Amino acid sequence: MDQFLTFIANNQLLAMLWLAIATLLVVSIIKSKLSKINEINPHELTLLVNRENGVIVDIRNDGEFKKGHIIGSKSLALDKINENNFQGLENSKDKPIIVVCTAGISAVKAANALAKAGFEKVSVLKGGFNAWQSANLPIAK
């Protein structure tokens, strides 16, 4: 313990950086546990669609969507979601909604907007469409 305290005293900058990183990690874990948004993998996505009639919402641009998308997914641009324009999703508020983007990063923002709009079961495909392709799952063009 004395060595630890000596190290902190001699390396205050490193100690503060370590404390900041540890704090950010803890905050990130707590935030993800309290979030209404779930991150799911491609296998869980297929289970939600097949067993619970889940709806896949692809927020990529039209060009990317036309090049390839998950079979049965609906294209809905992120800016339309930000404007609370949920065309085609009005009757799906009680169904699982899975938001898909390219890499799984921008889908979280769209999923939060959907949750705020009253959609009950909103999830994000972890890794996005790239994860779907990496798993060699079928796509439609």
Structural features, described:
There is one protein chain. With 141 residues, this protein is of the alpha/beta class. The protein has two domains: 2-33; 37-140, 3-Layer(aba) Sandwich (Oxidized Rhodanese, domain 1), CATH 3.40.250. The chain has seven helices and seven strands. The chain has helices spanning 2-10, 12-34, 42-52, 62-67, 78-82, 107-116, 128-134, and strands at 38-40, 55-58, 69-70, 74-75, 96-100, 121-125, 139-140. The protein has a five-stranded parallel beta sheet. Helix 6 links the parallel strand 5 (96-100) and strand 6. The longest helix has 23 residues, at 12-34. The chain is elongated. It starts with a helix and ends with a strand.
SSE topology:
Blueprint: H1 2-10, H2 12-34, E1 38-40, H3 42-52, E2 55-58, H4 62-67, E3 69-70, E4 74-75, H5 78-82, E5 96-100, H6 107-116, E6 121-125, H7 128-134, E7 139-140
Quick tags:
141 residues; alpha/beta; Oxidized Rhodanese, domain 1
**What Rg, in angstroms, do the CA atoms define?**
20 Å
CATH topology of the largest domain: Oxidized Rhodanese, domain 1
Largest sheet: 5 strands, parallel
Q: Which superfamily, in CATH terms, is the homologous superfamily of the largest domain?
A: Rhodanese-like domain
| N-C termini distance | 62 Å
Which structural class matches the secondary elements? alpha/beta
N-to-C order of helices and strands: HHEHEHEEHEHEHE
Mean pLDDT: 91
Number of strands: 7
Counting DSSP H or I runs of 4 or more residues, the number of helices is 7
What's the CATH architecture name of the largest domain? 3-Layer(aba) Sandwich
Tertiary shape: elongated
Strand order of the largest sheet: 1-6-5-2-4
How many structural units, i.e. domains? 2
User: Helix proportion of residues, in percent?
Assistant: 40-55%
